[in-house]
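Re: duplicated header lines in exported structure tokens

Our pipeline writes sequence and tokens for each protein into one text file. With two proteins the header for the second block appears twice in some exports. Here is an export where it did not happen, for reference. First protein block:
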Amino acid sequence: MSLHNISIRVEAETGYSVGSLRALLAEIAAHLETLARDGASGSIDLNSLPFAPGEYEQLRQLLGQGEVSAHIEAIGPSEVIETRYPGVWWVTHYNVEGDIVADMLEITDIPAIIRSQPEDIAGGLELLRAQLNDEVQQ
């Protein structure tokens, strides 16, 4: 076998790799299948992926936006956007300067950042009971 026997196919440069986006979509589908079948959540760290120019924007277009979104103010702002595929959430965390510090796809029924934490629930109950006691005393 020589180099002359190796077939070479030249393709036009599109600015993104359809193959890598297809692989990412297949990974999302596998996570979504696991969620539907077993209830097990998964996530994909988008910051760790080597996107070619234009791929990130194309992924946003491919996933689209669903019916639910949330803006959260915690240590820094975060946005949670349901994609057009229920169970697939685009979760982006920013620092106080507005730089992206985490960019994730979470495949779950509801992203963890939206869930109330048990200690917050207990604090809310305590606050509500105090409010009720104040109302009764008035």
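Second protein block, exported in the same file:
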Amino acid sequence: MITQEEFLGNWKAIAGAVKREYGQITGDDLSRVEGSIERLIGLIQSKTGKTKEQVKHFLDSCMDSTSSTVNRLSDAAAEYAGYAGEAVRENYDRVAESAHAGYRQTMQTVSRRPLESMALAVGAGLLAGVIVGISMIGRRR
């Protein structure tokens, strides 16, 4: 038999299953149950003529169905997380390889043309300094 905690935790699923299985039980009927397993069992018995054991078996099967659904959803989420992790690793590897290739190419260029590389670095530094200086002057005004 399901516990009170399981019952309360899965109330919406259980209520939906009760309505599907026993069409004569309404939402108003279920709202009067007020979270009590025994009241729900009594309600189903009075509306359907089922025995207490039959109702308990039905509620247990509702819990099995709910647990099975939760397990399937959990497995699917784990599978998607695995795919996402794999995609992140693959993209990281591609970016790392691309950065490494760029570094190798830069080092080759600097070693083949050291003076031109030095001039380019000095020019870029001067340009950056001028831009920062102009922006600081503009802020003072």
